[in-house]
Specification:
Elements (H helix, E strand, L loop, with lengths): L1 H26 L2 E2 L2 E2 H36 L6 H25 L5 H35 L5 H30 L4 H18 L1 H16 L7 E4 L2 E8 L3 E5 L5 E5 H5 L3 E3 L6 E9 L5 H16 L4 E11 L4 E9 L4 H22 L22
Antiparallel strand pairs: 1-2, 3-4, 3-7, 4-5, 5-6, 8-10, 9-10
Helix pairs in contact: 2-3, 3-4, 4-5, 9-10
C-alpha cells in the first residue's frame, strides 16, 4: 500500500513538472520577434491599467478638478467635469496602450504606424478639448448676461468660426508632428489667401462685419432696433446678412456692412424711458389754479406704477393756451407699460381738472367788432 501511494505521488509530481516545463516552453515561444510571456505581460498591463484608470485614477483626477473649481472663481458646472472626463480618460487609455506596447519589439513599420495613429488620435482629442473649453468659457463669462435662448443662438453663430480656426491650427500641428514641411504649405496658403481676398473683397467685407457684430455685439437676436429708416426686431444674424422682423410683419434683410456702418438705436437696452408732454389750459384760468396745476400733476404721476416724477412748470404763453411742460421717467423700457401709464395719467389729469374747474384749452379765435354810429341830421 505504501509503495503504491508513493508511486502515485511521484507520478503527480512528475506530471506537475511536465506541465511546468510545457508552460515554460509555451512562454518562451517566440512569435513575431517577441516571447509569449512578453505578450501576456503587455496584456496584463492593459487589463490592470484599465481597472486602475476606471476605479482609482479617474475618480481621483475628477475629485481634484472638482476641488480646484470650487476653490477658484470658475462657476461650478457639471459640464466642465464632463469635458475633462471625456478628454482625460481617452488620453490615459492612449498612454496605457503606449506603455504596454513599449515593452514589445515590433517591426519599424508597425512602430511608425502606431506612432502616426497615436498622434492623430491625440491631436483629435486635444482639438475637441480646446473647442469645448472655449465654448464653455464663452457661455460662462462672455455670454453670462444673456438669456438661455440668446446664449444658444449666439453660440450657434460663433461655434462654426471657432471650429474652423481650431481645426486649421490642429491640422497644421498634426502635419508638423508627422514630419511634413509646413513652411511651403503656409507660404502657399498665404499667397492663395491674398489672391482669394482680392477676388472676393465684398464677401470678406461682409464676413468681417459679421465678426464685428458677433464679437462687439452692437445688436443681439431679439433686440428691437432702428437702423436709418428701418425698424424691427433682430431675427437672424448670418455670415452675410442680418434679418429684421418689422412691426408690420414683413422681413427686412440688410447686409452686415450696412448694419455696422450705420447708427443703430437699440431700444432693447434702454433701462428707462424719459417722457416729456405738454398740456395747455385756458387763458381765463385763475392764478390760484395755475399754481396748483404742478402739484396736481406731481401727485398723479407719483401714484402711477413704474413712474418717477421729475418736474412740471408753466413753460410758455401759447396762441390760445397757457402751457405746462411735464417730465417724468418710466422705470421700465416696456413700451406697452409706458402707454398704459400715459393713458392713466391723461385720464387722471382730465378728471382732476374737471373737479377743480380748470379748463383744458383748445384752439379758439376771438373776433372783436367795433360798431360806429353816425348821426345824420336832416
Amino acid at each position: 500500500m505504501w509503495r503504491v501511494h508513493c508511486r502515485q505521488n511521484n507520478q503527480e509530481i512528475n506530471g506537475k513538472n511536465m506541465n511546468n516545463q510545457q508552460l515554460e516552453t509555451i512562454l518562451q515561444y517566440e512569435f513575431l520577434g517577441n516571447l509569449v510571456s512578453e505578450y501576456l505581460l503587455a496584456l496584463a498591463i492593459i487589463i490592470v491599467g484599465l481597472l486602475l484608470i476606471k476605479f482609482v485614477i479617474k475618480p481621483f483626477i475628477l475629485k481634484g478638478i472638482r476641488n480646484w473649481i470650487a476653490n477658484s472663481r470658475i462657476p461650478f458646472n457639471n459640464r466642465i467635469l464632463k469635458i475633462f472626463e471625456t478628454t482625460i480618460v481617452p488620453l490615459l487609455n492612449l498612454g496605457l496602450l503606449y506603455i504596454s506596447i513599449g515593452n514589445l519589439t515590433l517591426h519599424p513599420i508597425i512602430n511608425q504606424t502606431i506612432d502616426v495613429i497615436g498622434i492623430i488620435i491625440g491631436t483629435f482629442i486635444g482639438i475637441q478639448f480646446i473647442g469645448k473649453i472655449i465654448e464653455y468659457l464663452l457661455a460662462t463669462y462672455w455670454l453670462s448676461g444673456e438669456s438661455e435662448e440668446a446664449r444658444e443662438q449666439t453660440l450657434a453663430i460663433i461655434s462654426p468660426a471657432i471650429k474652423i480656426v481650431i481645426w486649421t491650427i490642429g491640422f497644421i500641428f498634426l502635419l508638423a508632428n508627422l514630419g511634413f514641411n509646413i513652411s511651403a504649405l503656409i507660404a502657399g496658403l498665404g499667397v492663395g489667401g491674398i489672391a482669394i481676398a482680392l477676388a472676393a473683397q465684398g464677401i470678406f467685407q461682409e464676413l468681417f462685419s459679421y465678426f464685428a457684430i458677433v464679437l462687439d455685439r452692437p445688436v443681439r437676436i431679439g433686440d428691437f432696433i432702428i437702423v436709418g429708416d428701418l425698424v424691427g426686431s433682430v431675427e437672424y444674424i448670418g455670415i452675410k446678412t442680418t434679418r429684421l422682423r418689422s412691426l408690420s410683419g414683413e422681413q427686412i434683410i440688410l447686409s452686415n456692412s450696412d448694419l455696422t456702418s450705420s447708427r443703430i438705436r437699440n431700444y432693447k437696452r434702454m433701462e428707462e424711458r424719459r417722457i416729456v408732454f405738454s398740456i395747455g389750459v385756458a387763458y381765463d384760468t385763475s392764478n390760484e389754479q395755475m399754481k396748483a396745476i404742478p402739484e396736481i400733476i406731481r401727485a398723479i404721476i407719483e401714484q402711477t406704477e413704474n413712474t418717477r416724477f421729475d418736474r412740471c412748470h408753466f413753460s410758455s404763453y401759447g396762441d390760445f393756451s397757457l402751457n405746462f411742460e411735464t417730465v417724468y421717467y418710466m422705470e421700465t423700457a416696456n413700451y406697452d407699460a409706458y402707454m398704459d401709464a400715459q393713458q392713466k395719467i391723461n385720464l387722471a389729469i382730465k378728471e382732476k381738472f374737471e373737479a377743480e374747474g380748470i379748463e383744458i384749452a383748445y384752439p379758439t379765435q376771438v373776433l372783436y367788432v367795433n360798431y360806429v354810429t353816425e348821426n345824420n341830421s336832416n
